[in-house]
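Handout, page 2. Input:
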Amino acid sequence: MIWGRQGTGGLRRGGRSRLVPVFALLLGAVVSAPASAQMFTDRPPPIPPASVPEAPAGPAMNLAPASGPASIPSLPPPLTAPPAVTAAPPVVAPQGAAAPNQGVLALTARFGKDLPTITGGLVWRVFSDRPDETGNMKMVREDRSATPNIVLPPGNYVIDVALGLVSAVRPVTLKAETARESFVLPAGGLRIEGRVGTSKIPQNQISFAIYKGSQFEVSERAPLLPSVAAGDVVLVPEGTYYIISNYGDANSVVRSDIRVQASKLTDVIITHRAAVITLKLVSDRGGEALANTAWSVITPGGDVIKESIGAFPKVILSEGEYRAIAKNEGKVYERSFNVVNGVDGEVEVVAR
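Output:
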């Protein structure tokens, strides 16, 4: 199990992973190494909205002639038919065999040297080894079978195979015979979900960005996948990654380091410590919310966490202490409140 932690912390809380064979996910898909060089280019019952506690003092898809009596006309002498000639049946080449002056590329891919053959999800592309007048390599064949037999004239080609974000490229020389090429694609699956306590976070409220390497590496990196939906399976090269999970669009952010293994599906659960808060400006406690209210949620130190406009906007906040500031008809009202992990609620600010 791998754990992450709230904010920018380490591997102790926040995300955990479970490994299952990814080739089972690929319809049974997913080991001899290639001979030539290869380039690897429950939610429990819902908690009813509760009043959010005040902050404590201080910081925090049928042809025949008709019969009858008429005379029968004279018939012409019989015709002699030419002797029948039995045509020889056509010769059919065995399936996958090359026609004369043709060669066959018999292609396979594995997750690793001693790992299973990949049986689904592959995209094979064969290119001419010489660029055209525009300088681009011309694609001569594409196939999405797991183990294709591609018939081509003898010559030099470049084979590209991809599985998700994992790919390999290799130049080959094809002769008038069968050339067998096996590729290694060390891919693993990654599936993520978010939770608050034991409650699963709805898919439309959470997103994940996946980065190569560890969160503790100093170098700046663009995300490998900037927005992955909860429950989606992505195929990536085996290795170490870190995930930035955003619950809502305010400050509930969790970073987790994970390890993806070739041929395995890694299930990751990232836990947020947060709650959904509804803001209301009322004339009296329990009253109707006032429209056209501008809101700001700030920390005790004055940092702005979220701004919005509406009668009762919702904001997802990490647990902690905050101040809600409401502006309506030129007047400003405010209230301090606490967010408790997993306890959704309302914050009423009385316009007095």
